[in-house]
Design brief:
alpha/beta, Rossmann fold, Helicase, Ruva Protein, domain 3, five-stranded parallel beta sheet, two-stranded antiparallel sheet, 15% strand, globular
């Protein structure tokens, strides 16, 4: 099933194997994605493709400073025709939600997503509704723009399982894009390759992936290094530790393994960490967040044993 899903995404989204793997990691881990890149790199296309490939509902919220929380989660209003209050569910009620340019929204509107992302539910006038399963928020922001934007608070950033930078395609991949999109939109040919029940089954199977004690120790060593690093002011939280384990299990599932290995941790660690840590003023003068995280990876001993299955 996962191979079919991967092929379906590859039929539209060209040449970004790591990005697609991270997207599947988030889907299998029941996590959310923060896409940060310049306009035109395919962020919206990626979200639409995964929604069509799993046969899920898709919703796009275009964030601007005047978008209100009720525009996101919905509201209760009085219908004079029926003489009673009625509830209107907002665009957050979908399987795949594209929160486009989330950093353009006011902080109050940004915070309206917290309950939905963490608890998979929304509350309107003290009435709570469960969101559909699976539920995946893919939020985008453009790193080069600062005018009219509001940086996401740490509590919001911590709700995203991974942060992904798509980047520009290679010359050959861009040639493939030119040919593929020359006459028609490949997205129109995408049809569901897995059912919603299959996705839920895969998520449950992912939770059963074995994590040995030495892999747990490896994760704890990495996490503690972010808390004790001389250039990191705020290290990874316990929520980030759990997120790393879930993401590593998902990576192992994608590779058709029943257990995690150090390479799974190494693959997800940078994407789990860079949006969660905060550098000190001195640290920011010497290195970027990405450079600090990769230096930690290089300095922590990798566990070696004959088998990680036990």
């Amino acid at each position: 099933m996962l191979d079919n899903l991967k092929d379906s995404i590859n039929s539209v989204f060209v040449g970004k194997e790591e990005t697609i793997d991270l997207l599947l990691v988030a889907l299998l881990s029941n996590g959310h994605i923060l896409l940060e890149d310049v306009p035109g790199t395919g962020k919206t296309l990626l979200a639409k493709t995964i929604a069509k490939s799993i046969g899920g509902t898709f919703s796009r919220i275009q964030f601007t400073p005047d978008v209100l929380p009720s525009d996101v989660i919905g509201l209760e209003y009085f219908n004079p025709k029926h003489g009673e209050f009625e509830k209107r569910i907002g665009p957050i009620y979908a399987n795949i939600v594209l929160a486009d340019e989330i950093n353009r929204a006011m902080p109050r509107t940004q915070s309206s997503l917290l309950e939905a992302m963490e608890e998979r539910q929304i509350t309107i006038e003290k009435q709570t509704d469960q969101l559909p399963t699976p539920f995946l928020v893919i939020a985008t922001q453009n790193p080069g723009e600062s005018h009219g934007t509001f940086p996401l608070p740490d509590a919001q950033l911590d709700r995203f399982l991974v942060k992904i930078n798509i980047g520009y395609p290679s010359r050959e991949d861009e040639r493939k894009i030119m040919k593929r999109f020359r006459r028609e939109d490949p997205l129109s040919d995408v049809s569901p390759v897995v059912r919603m029940e299959d996705v839920q089954k895969l998520q449950e199977e992912t939770k059963q992936i074995h994590i040995s004690d030495c892999i747990e120790d490896y994760v704890l060593d990495l996490v503690e290094s972010t808390r004790n690093h001389k250039w990191i002011e705020t290290g990874l939280s316990p929520r980030a530790t759990l997120a790393m384990l879930r993401a590593a299990q998902a990576k192992a599932k994608i590779e058709s393994r029943a257990y995690c290995i150090p390479e799974d941790i190494q693959f997800v660690f940078p994407h789990i960490s860079t949006h969660r840590i905060m550098l000190s003023m001195e640290g920011a003068l010497h290195m970027t967040k990405s450079e600090v995280i990769h230096s930690i990876l290089g300095n922590i001993d990798v566990p070696v044993e004959l088998s990680y299955e036990k």
